[in-house]
């Protein structure tokens, strides 16, 4: 991949850097946030210490994965970013669908294909000098999922071989354009502009799910989508409740 090629293909008007290898593109951009003056896409051909939500590891390979982070500045504090991971999921779903890969979304930050995880989203924030907030939006996308990688994960995971055959520069440019458009819309209207589209892709709509925190079941009920702030709506025996993301896991009840 070459930054100049991606920039020539993309319409987003975002600065782009490509590195051969790094530990974590999110960590790199967080460390640079104080010096940033404009949005920046950082793509790693190989990421050795990728992270998922709640500090979990994100396993990837240079041949079978695409890993990148996008630094984007928003006005206001982190509280104004409620629902941003879900909006990013909608943007990814739209772009992947246009490229021939149909996906579903799992609350709060996963992209699924045929019920298995295809992509993960990790958003971290840092206050910007002079006001506002930098959102560092990290994305890991599986392209090819070999058996040995699934064995290391200890669970099923999806791949998208069709995307693996694309030129990487073309794929990254398409994803960047979709994300930039979505982030500008989010800055103007918040998650409300994405809510209906997220619910259309909701993988577990109407399914009985459990909300688990550190092995303890906190809630159980029918998944009823999300509201316009990104909270999960759960129909329980005691009525409908709305849940913020936090560090919890959502699982379909067997």
From TrEMBL:
It catalyses: biotin + L-lysyl-[protein] + ATP = N(6)-biotinyl-L-lysyl-[protein] + AMP + diphosphate + H(+). Keywords: ATP-binding, Biotin, Ligase, Nucleotide-binding. The keyword Ligase applies. The keyword Metal-binding does not apply. CDD domains: BPL (cd16442). Its EC number is 6.3.4.15. It comes from the Bacteria. Residues 1-187 form the BPL/LPL catalytic domain. One of its GO terms (molecular function) is ATP binding. It is an enzyme of class 6 (ligase). GO terms for cellular component: cytoplasm. PANTHER family: BIOTIN PROTEIN LIGASE (PTHR12835), BIOTIN--PROTEIN LIGASE (PTHR12835:SF5). This is biotin--[biotin carboxyl-carrier protein] ligase. It comes from Telluria aromaticivorans.
């Amino acid at each position: 991949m070459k930054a100049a090629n991606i920039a020539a293909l993309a319409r987003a008007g975002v600065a782009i850097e490509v590195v051969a290898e790094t530990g974590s593109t999110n960590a790199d951009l967080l460390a640079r946030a104080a010096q940033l003056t404009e949005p920046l896409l950082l793509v790693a051909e190989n990421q050795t210490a990728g992270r998922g939500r709640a500090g979990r590891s994100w396993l990837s390979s240079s041949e079978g994965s695409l890993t990148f982070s996008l630094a984007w500045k928003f006005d206001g504090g982190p509280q104004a970013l409620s629902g941003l991971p879900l909006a990013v999921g909608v943007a990814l779903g739209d772009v992947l669908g246009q490229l021939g890969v149909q996906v579903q979304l799992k609350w709060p930050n996963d992209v699924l294909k045929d019920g298995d995880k295809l992509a993960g989203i990790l958003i971290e924030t840092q206050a910007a000098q002079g006001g506002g907030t930098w959102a560092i939006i990290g994305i890991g996308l599986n392209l090819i999922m070999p058996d040995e990688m699934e064995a290391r994960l200890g669970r099923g995971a999806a791949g998208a071989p069709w995307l693996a055959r694309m030129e990487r520069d073309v794929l990254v440019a398409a994803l960047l354009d979709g994300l930039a458009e979505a982030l500008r819309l989010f800055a103007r209207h918040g998650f409300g502009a994405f809510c209906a589209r997220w619910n259309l892709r909701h993988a577990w709509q109407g399914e009985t799910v459990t909300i688990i925190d550190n092995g303890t079941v906190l809630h159980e009920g029918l998944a009823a989508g999300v509201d316009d702030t990104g909270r999960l709506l759960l129909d329980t025996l005691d009525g409908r409740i709305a849940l913020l993301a936090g560090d919890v896991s959502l699982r379909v009840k067997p």
